[in-house]
Write a structure and sequence with these properties.
Helix content: 40-55%
Shape: globular
Bound molecules: zinc ion
Number of helices: 8
Largest sheet: 7 strands, mixed
Number of strands: 7
CATH superfamily: LmbE-like
Strand order of the largest sheet: 3-2-1-4-5-7-6
Number of domains: 1
Order of helices and strands: EHEHEHEHHEEHHHE
CATH class: Alpha Beta
Radius of gyration: 17 Å
CATH architecture: 3-Layer(aba) Sandwich
CATH topology: Rossmann fold
């Protein structure tokens, strides 16, 4: 399978909450898009791993994803080690995305930070010929572009994606994660930083703030290391 874009998140729902609008816009534009989760979110305060698998499947259908994978790393204990980065590099060679989008390394949740680092290292390793030969799978191929999405710590984005046209659909996709957005008990405040029913409000606040910067209602901020190339700066 050849993808145009692969989004890599630590837990099922990270991709949807952070860049669900960007994913929908790419798919609406005819791109083939996949999401790779590093864990099944089994340490989450709410819902079982089975609940989350079911919710992830529903969210994937709503997004219209062409691929959804899971690396099976331990939730809450994701480490940027050799095994993790080589496992992700293998998936990059198999799915051949031109564009990879992952957490930013600077994030409060250690799994998110580790995911950002794993994605960056795997992106580089995916282009090494000898490593691909040792692995015995598809040939080496490094995605042309790697960018990061925003978690709990703000950065100055290099790109803001206009997601006005798909905003309501993005909220519907997030709502597929029923176990994550409903309180389990009246005093349930959740342990996850993005806890509770305010996940939707937080997503909206962030999208309004960054949308305003590009003159639209809703925007999703991305950051890419180094300058963006162009042959025509008037566009
Ligand atoms: Zn997460």
């Amino acid at each position: 399978m050849k993808l145009d874009a692969l989004v890599i998140g630590a837990h099922p729902d990270d991709a949807e909450i952070s860049v669900g609008g960007t994913i929908l816009r790419m798919i609406d534009a005819g791109r083939t898009v996949g999401v790779l989760d590093l864990t099944r979110g089994e340490m989450g305060t709410r819902g079982t791993a089975e609940d989350r698998d079911r919710e992830t499947q529903r969210a994937s259908e709503l997004l219209g994803l062409h691929y959804r994978g899971n690396v099976g790393l331990p939730d809450g204990r994701v480490e940027a080690n050799v095994e993790a980065r080589e496992a992700v590099a293998r998936i990059l060679r198999e799915t051949q995305p031109d564009f990879v989008l992952a957490h930013h390394e600077h994030d409060l949740h250690p799994d998110h930070s580790a995911c950002g680092r794993i994605a960056k290292e795997a992106w580089y390793l995916s282009g090494l010929k000898r490593l691909a030969e040792l692995d015995g799978g598809p040939p080496a191929k490094r995605p042309a572009r790697l960018a990061h999405f925003m978690g709990h710590i703000a950065f100055e984005p290099t790109v803001v994606v206009d997601v006005d046209a798909v905003w309501e659909r993005k909220l519907e996709v997030i709502r597929a994660y029923t176990s994550q957005i409903q309180a389990a008990a009246p005093d349930d405040r959740g342990e996850h930083f993005l806890f509770g029913a305010d996940i939707l409000q937080r997503a909206e606040t962030k999208a309004r703030f960054f949308g305003e910067k590009i003159g639209v209602r809703y925007g999703e901020p991305l950051w890419q290391e180094g300058p963006l190339a162009t042959t025509d700066p008037t566009r």
